Amino acid sequence: MRKKLFLSIAAVFLMAASLLPLNTEAAGIHYVAIGDSLAAGQTPYKEIGASYTDLIAFALQQKGQLQSFSKQLAFPGYSTGQVIDQLDKKEAQALIRKADLITISAGANDMLPLIQNDSVRGMLSYEAIPVAFALNGMRKNYIKLFKEIRQLNRHAEIYAMGYYFPYPHAKEEQKRSVADQLAVLNKIIEQEAARTGAHFVPVAHRFGNNADSLVPNPADVHPAPGGYLEMANSFIQAYAPGSPMIPTSVLSQLPAPVPFAKLQKSQSSHEAREEKPKKEKPRKPQKKTALQEGKRCKVSAYM
Question: Where along the chain is composition biased (Basic and acidic residues) (predicted)?
C-alpha cells in the first residue's frame, strides 16, 4: 500500500525539475535516486515534495546533461535493509542497470528510531549498546548494498549522501552525544563508499548543530526546502567541483508539497476505480419477433 501511495504521485514529483526552466540538448545521463524519505522528498509536516534529488536533476537538466530521472526507489521510512530488499525486484534492477548516476540516502532509519526526542523539553536520549549494534548492522548492509548495485551496474557513478544533525531545537547540552553518533554513521558510509569506489557526499557541515531554519519542526527530523537545497549543493560540490551552486531562487519555482492525507485519499479513490465489477451471469437471448429482427439495434443487447 505504501509503495503504491508514493508511486501514485510520480507524475507530480518524479520530474519536478521538468517544471523549471529547461536547457535542452540532453547529453544522456540516466539518474536514479534510491533510499529513504530524504531521497523521496518528505517535508517536516508530513508531506511529500521536491527532494535534493529533484534539485540535482534540475541542475543536470540546466546543463543539458539529463536524459532521465527516477526516484521510484525512494520511500519514507526505509532502512538500509529495506533499500537492499528492493533490488530483488525486476523493476528496480532495470532502473539500476540503466543508470549512469545513482545517489543513495540510507542509514538514518537504522539508528534514529533508537533516539528518543522529547521536542517539548528539548531532551535527547538513547542507549549506547543498541545504537552501536544498529550502526554495525548498517555497515554490513552498506557492504551488501554496494556489492549488489555493482553486480547490476559496473559503470554508474555512485554517490552516497551523508546526514545532517536533525535535532537543532534540542538543548545545547543534549546535542553533543547524539551528534557524535551521527558522525560515526557518516564515517561508516564514507568508509564503505571508498572501499567500493563510490563517492561520499558530506552534508553535516552545511547544517551544523543549530540549523533550526533548515529543520524547522522540533518534532520532525526532515528538512525544509532550503535544507534540501543545501544537500543538493553539497552533491554539486562533490560531483562537479567549481560548478555554480543552485540558486535559492529555484525554491520559489518548485511544485507545492502534497500532504500524506491527500495522497492516501487519492490512492483510495484510485484503487476503488480500478476494482472490477462482479460479472453477472449472461442472460439467455430471447427469441426475437419478426418486427424486432427488422429493426436496427442502436446499443448492445447485453449490458
Answer: 268-278
Name the residue type at position 68.
S
CA distance linking residue 103 with residue 288, whole number of Å:
68
pLDDT in tens, the chain (303 residues): 444 444 444 434 444 444 444 443 445 899 999 999 999 999 999 999 999 999 999 999 999 999 999 999 999 999 999 999 999 999 999 999 999 999 999 999 999 999 999 999 999 999 999 999 999 999 999 999 999 999 999 999 999 999 999 999 999 999 999 999 999 999 999 999 999 999 999 999 999 999 999 999 999 999 999 999 999 999 999 999 999 999 999 999 999 999 988 776 665 555 555 555 555 555 555 544 333 333 333 332 333
Distance separating the N- and C-terminal Cα atoms of the chain: 33
Is the whole-model pTM more than 0.90?
A: no
Contact status, residue 147 vs residue 196, Cβ threshold 8 Å:
yes
Residue labelled with grid coordinates 530483488: 88
What gap in Å lies between CA 179 and CA 181, rounded to an integer? Answer: 5
List of long-range contacts for 187-192, beta carbons under 8 Å, 24+ apart: 188/107, 188/135, 188/138, 188/139, 188/142, 189/107, 189/142, 189/160, 189/162, 190/160, 190/162, 192/139, 192/142, 192/143, 192/146, 192/160
CA distances from 5 to 2, 63, 76, 171, 282 (A): 5, 32, 11, 36, 36
Please provide the size of the chain in residues: 303
Could you identify the residue written with the cell 545521463? Answer: 29
